[in-house]
Amino acid sequence: MKKCTPILSAIFALTILPGLAQADAAGGFHWASSPPLIMPPKGEGITYYGVKDPSVVFYDGEYHVFMTTAGTNGWGLAYTHFSDWSQAKASPIVPLDKSPMGPGYRAAPQVFYFAPRKLWYMVYQGGDPMYSTSSDISDPLSWSAPTPFFDAIPDVVRQTNGEAGWLDFWVICDDAKCYLFFTNDNGGFFRAETTLDAFPAGFHNTTRVMTGPRDDIFEASNTYRVAGTKNYITLVEAIGPKGRYFRIWKSDRLDGEWTPIGDSMNVFAGAGNVRFDGKTWSQGVSHGEMIRSGFDQTLSIDPCRPLQFLYQGLDPDSQEPDYLKLPYRLGLITATGADPVSEMCPTRIR
Q1: Is the pLDDT of residue 13 over 70?
Q2: What is the pLDDT of residues 152-191, one digit of tens each?
Q3: 116 contacts 94 by C-beta, under 8 angstroms
Q4: Which value, to the nearest 10 degrees, does the dihedral of the CA atoms of residues 221, 225, 229, 234 take?
Q5: What 8-state DSSP symbol labels residue 284?
Q6: Which residues pair with 321 in a beta bridge?
Q7: Is 249 helix (H, G, I), strand (E, B) or coil?
Q8: Staple 159 to which of 14, 165, 180, 255, CB 3.0 to 4.6 Å?
Q9: Composition of the chain by helix, strand, coil, percent to 5
């Protein structure tokens, strides 16, 4: 989720970098997309242009979806819930600014249950990385006031003007540590760490994990444990000639080296491998989240079931020059057939 400045060159006037021609290659993944499922809400005295950056948790028989809203009041966070995707379009969307979290710039949420503290955590950007907590994921008014993760900006993310270059924050934990991953819209993928006992305090050792061309490692990273295996996967949004798309890497440790899955551009999902039933309603696949098999801080996905990814899609015919007003909608892609992640399924390996 880019902060409020437009990135028109990134959206409409894309330059094809060396190797980007391969971004249309399927890379072993094939997807079918739903129509738009979650639309901008109708607000009293507010016009909402788009809904973006979803985080989704399946808990207690329902999908709980948190998202960024873009409207005449700027950027904010909102919530909806439903028991089946067929109900998503009709489910009310509730802004979170009436909770203790309050109004102001809030964007790019990630939500999980931190079992050691028996609390729900929402990680988001409020300029710097912030978090709020709740004991009840279904109560949109229960989220606490924002708390920063860091007392000071790590030197490694400082830009030449002294400001921080970081966004789209993502937390995942193993048995000993919690890791905070993020990107910088400029080819950098970063990681900080703290102990499981100290979380959410104590993040340190902020390091650059991967570096590449700006458009190849752009933003919106998300990382998961592949259940039943020793593997983790990381997805990072990139920019291609046919819109946004995601690339994929794997590792056997959260603090280890990340190696590409698939071809040289390791494409996970984008214009080249997503099929639409009827009109193609989205130019590529942008900021989203996998449907997890659990809801706790390990962020597990099940490789033995078809993968699903809730994403923000943009109308291919949109000519809106104002980044805030881009008409993003949320839709769901579902894997069709075997892919490099499903090949990790323990029963398939046997």
Answers
A1: no
A2: 999 999 998 989 999 999 999 999 999 999 999 999 999 9
A3: no
A4: 0
A5: B
A6: none
A7: strand
A8: 165
A9: 10, 45, 50
